[in-house]
Amino acid sequence: MTHENGEMLEEEETAVLEAFNANEYESVLTEQRKSTLVESANASVKKDKRINIRIAQRDLEALQRKAMQEGMPYQTLIASILHKYASGSLTDSR
Question: Of 12, 30, 75, whose CA–CA distance to 66 is shortest?
Answer without folding.
Answer: 75
